[in-house]
Amino acid sequence: MGDGHGARLADGLSLAHGCLPVAIQGVAVVALLCAVGWRSARWRLAWLPVSIVVGVLAVLGLRWYVKYEGMADNPALPVFWVWVGLTGVAVGVAVLGWRATQWWRRGLSLIAVALAVLSCGITLNMSVGYFTTAQMAWGQLTGASLPDQAAPATVSSLRRSRALPAHGTVIAVRVGSSASGFKHRAEYVYLPPAWFASDPPPTLPAVMMIPGQFNTPADWIRQGNTVTEIDRFAARHHGYAPVLVFADVGGSFGNDTECVNGPRGNVDDHLVKDIVPFVTAQFGVSRWGAVGWSMGGTCAVNLAARHPETFSTFVDIAGDLSPAAGNDVQTTARLFGGDSAARAAFDTPTVIQRHGPYRDVAGWFAVSIGKGASQEWDAAERLCRLGRVNHMSCTVARAVGKHDWPFAEAGFAAALPWLAARLGTPAVGAVGPPDSSSIDDALHS
């Protein structure tokens, strides 16, 4: 089997639905049943019930930990918690039945644990849509090139040719951290085709792209499919589109910073004082906007509220009311080292009220209609009302969907024409803010 055919096969294997997730979970169930086996009466009456208790404790413990850490407001699929319980059962069976059984059953019990853990990951992925295909997962795990990614030599060659390429280019950039001190990973910039067609390049707007709570800087490229969408947009507008900047707001995958300055990193300073000057100097951009999903949506509104002189337009897809990492006391402690004044400086409603009337700031909120989405709706409505009182122009659109990456992708696709027009992208005429039908069309296209 050639590499190309293998890649196409992997690309067709869905991890969000279809036969592959079901097959893996089915094999996991069979492995667990075989590992349990028909052992002695003492085993069935004493140790098997203990294994089941271990499974129940695993569910209760993880649910408590998720709530305590403020990891997610939207519930995972119920089957995820079933698999957490079965993983606990599998661990109990492996440990409690290790001594008094055959070597092959010991091996099978370890396989059952591994498959149960894998099934947990698959069902969690089905909730958030992080990996839609096996190829996407493999590409991230192996560090494969991103869509449209090019080496510096290729970018230089495109610049010298002054021709309009068929698609834009993604390049890795190493932004300094002199202003923020924030230790961050490599970040990325998307340059549309028109940027290469003249010398000097045209003056284009830039958009800060901010992912969710658990993230890499490339999430909007892989999981959000933004490069494909913006290439299509550029093709319809003679190669013109905003420059996209894929920022690192975590420093590591699980570091929930909420884009504030605090013990977890001075991320607001990194975005505003490190990235904006660097990209402006390197690529000659002008006006800035911000787009974010989930935690990133919270960040996008906050950036515009705190720095309206820089970020004149924001898109908040399923964000929260304000930066949060648990309840009020936990948020103040975790994000701001217990400093209430520092927290108030990043509390979005407080920031908007303190700033007073804004000038030429506009935002668009996209929220889903689904289980657990009422908090997103309430946050968007409250922020939009508060923004209007303070002369922000804003709109809220609500569409059927889940709190997942496919909804984020649809939200970006729906907002892009309005966003590009608002920021003054050349060759893009005036466009009004999108409505719910625009998200629906993007979700089903």
Name a few traits of the molecule.
alpha/beta, two-stranded antiparallel sheet, 12% strand, 8-stranded mixed β-sheet, 445 residues, Rossmann fold
Topology:
Layout: H1 3-12, H2 19-36, H3 41-69, H4 78-96, H5 103-128, H6 134-142, H7 152-161, E1 169-173, E2 187-191, E3 206-210, H8 219-222, H9 226-236, E4 243-246, E5 261-262, E6 265-266, H10 267-283, E7 288-293, H11 295-306, E8 311-317, H12 328-336, H13 340-344, H14 348-355, E9 362-369, H15 374-389, E10 393-400, H16 405-422, H17 436-443
Parallel strand pairs: 3-4, 3-7, 7-8, 8-9, 9-10
Antiparallel strand pairs: 1-2, 2-4, 5-6
Helix pairs in contact: 2-5, 3-4, 4-5, 9-16, 11-14, 16-17
Can you offer a commentary on this structure?
This protein has 445 residues and is of the alpha/beta class. The protein folds into two domains: 17-128, no CATH class; 146-443, 3-Layer(aba) Sandwich (Rossmann fold). The chain contains 17 helices and ten strands. Strands 1-2-4-3-7-8-9-10 form an eight-stranded mixed sheet, with helices on both faces. A two-stranded antiparallel ribbon has the order 5-6. Strand 5 and strand 6 form a beta hairpin. Helix 3 (41-69) crosses helix 4, helix 11 (295-306) packs parallel to helix 14 and helix 16 packs across helix 17. The radius of gyration is 24 Å and the shape is globular. Residues 1-10 have low confidence and may be disordered. One of its GO terms (cellular component) is extracellular region. It comes from Mycolicibacterium chubuense (strain NBB4). The chain crosses the membrane at residues 15-38, 45-66, 78-98, 110-131. InterPro entries: AB_hydrolase_fold, Esterase-like, Mycobacterial_A85_antigen.
